[in-house]
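FORM 7B - TANDEM STRUCTURE REPORT

SECTION 1: FIRST PROTEIN
SEQUENCE AND TOKENS:
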Amino acid sequence: MTAIAEPRAPHSAPRRRGPNLEKWGWLYMRISGLALVVLIFGHLFVNLMVGDGIHAIDFAFVAGKYTTPFWQWWDVLMLWLALIHGANGMRTIVNDYVTHGGTRRVLVWAIGLAAAFLILLGTLVVFTFDPCLGFDASTASETMIEICG
């Protein structure tokens, strides 16, 4: 009869006092996942089903959407939730499979820094987006002329 080997634990640190970050990370994954389903399907519905559907999506369509704070915040919320959700999932994988403590710390920090950088960059792009930069009325579509005047 063959015995099953005991599962390996990534690290066995004594239980610490304070907030249980793993519990909060687990809760965040569930709540953000539900919110992302609503945000993503709302995004897809508006972009693909309303109006002319996929044929209406071009630079002018995006520029028109980003003239309203509602769509800016919708897309930023989707960006923040998705990046933090993905980074938390990657952190969980690193914690499960990387056994060397120093390597694990470096990788978790790298994931956090990459997520923070992308969140900052994406937020700046959404809120500082200027569709009229380099606008040329002679070659612009009617929608762009309406947006940029």
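SECTION 2: SECOND PROTEIN
SEQUENCE AND TOKENS:
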Amino acid sequence: MFPHSPILAPVVALIAWSMVMWLWMYVTRIPAIQRMKLKLDSQAPRGEQMNTLPANVRWKADNYNHLMEQPTIFYAIALTLAIIGAGDGMNLTLAWTYVGLRVLHSFVQAVINKIELRFAVFFLSSLVLIGLIYNAARLIF
């Protein structure tokens, strides 16, 4: 077994969570497409056909897409912290907090999609991410 930085655990956890959301997206999307007897058209403008699906089905796909956006910054900064040997202590706590908030954000968006609540969770996760970036910048520069 190779030694590794503890901060890699929340990285893998968020990647695994992204795949849970991918599965949830398809488990809800495919039956909705079948119920609507939607004929998929490769010539339709991007996303146009999926916009006809019920909102509560689209929310899962929207969240999956969101997990491909800001978390890429988390992956980069967490890997940076792991490489420089700073993937433990407060940085590890911040990383797990970020992951927890992103999972909470997923549930809020995928289940109730209350925008004010979703934004509050997103904002908090962004502050945590800024903390990780600050800590890495302090050590690098």
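SECTION 3: OBSERVATIONS ON SECOND PROTEIN
The domain at 12-140 is CATH 1.20.120.550 (Four Helix Bundle (Hemerythrin (Met), subunit A)).
The chain has a mean pLDDT of 95.

SECTION 4: SIGNATURE
Preparer initials: ____
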